[in-house]
Amino acid sequence: MEIDRETLYQIAGTYVDAEIDQLSVEEAVKMILRAVGEDPDREGLVKTPERVARMYEELLSGYRVDPIALVNGAVFEVAYDEMVLVRDIEFYSLCEHHLLPFIGRAHVAYLPRGRIIGLSKIPRIVDMFAHRLQVQERMTRQIADFLDALLNPIGVAVVVEGLHLCATMRGVKKHSARMTTSSMLGYFRKNVATRQEFLDNISRGAAPLF
């Protein structure tokens, strides 16, 4: 079936078809260690720059995910038009303002228009956008827009709940503060009953975030 590749690449944003420059990251980490008064050559820190470079390769792997390869043909024609919901998708990301983690869970639903996507692809889509330098608001909308462009559904709904370490470790230092963002497209925005059904489903039996 036809997929609008150009639109998906535009929504997915930055795609880098190259490995992370680990040597440059290592040199940068050494500079930071010296700048804060540490000795990057002391025993406990000798391998820290290498570890940090490997860490960033993993935490920022979303830049190197080809969105078309991620979907990998797992879009199917099925005569089904009721809500499809995947809830409690755990994620981690890095705040682009302070390079500190924010972690949480995402709830994603759509109303098919005769086209569905394989179950495992929805968490992979969440991870593709989470494993970048992010703000939660943009990530929430990117997930919704990507599914909308991919499936052309009747509607898409995404709710993301996150705990931001930039707010718990520094600044206001509010340890219990949680951020909730949402993006409602199509019928989820227009129809109050459908939106409420989605919100009721993700709140029913929900475990504490942390």
Structural account:
The protein has 210 residues and is α+β, with helices and mostly antiparallel strands. The protein is built from nine helices and seven strands; from the N terminus they run H-H-H-H-E-E-E-E-H-E-H-E-H-E-H-H. The chain folds into two domains: 38 residues, GTP Cyclohydrolase I, Chain A, domain 1 (Orthogonal Bundle); 137 residues, GTP cyclohydrolase I, C-terminal domain/NADPH-dependent 7-cyano-7-deazaguanine reductase, N-terminal domain (GTP Cyclohydrolase I, domain 2), CATH 3.30.1130.10. A five-stranded mixed sheet has the order 5-2-3-6-7, with helices on both faces. A two-stranded antiparallel ribbon has the order 1-4. Helix 5 runs antiparallel to helix 6. It is globular, with a radius of gyration of 20 Å. The mean pLDDT is 93.
Number of strands: 7
- CATH C-level class of the largest domain is Alpha Beta
Summarize model confidence as the mean pLDDT: 93
Report the order of strands and helices. HHHHEEEEHEHEHEHH
CATH architecture assignment name of the largest domain? 2-Layer Sandwich
> What's the Cα radius of gyration?
20 Å
Helix content: 40-55%
Tally of alpha and pi helices: 9
CATH homologous superfamily label of the largest domain = GTP cyclohydrolase I, C-terminal domain/NADPH-dependent 7-cyano-7-deazaguanine reductase, N-terminal domain
| Alpha-carbon distance between the two ends | 41 Å
Strand content: 15-25%
Strands of the largest sheet, in order across it?
5-2-3-6-7
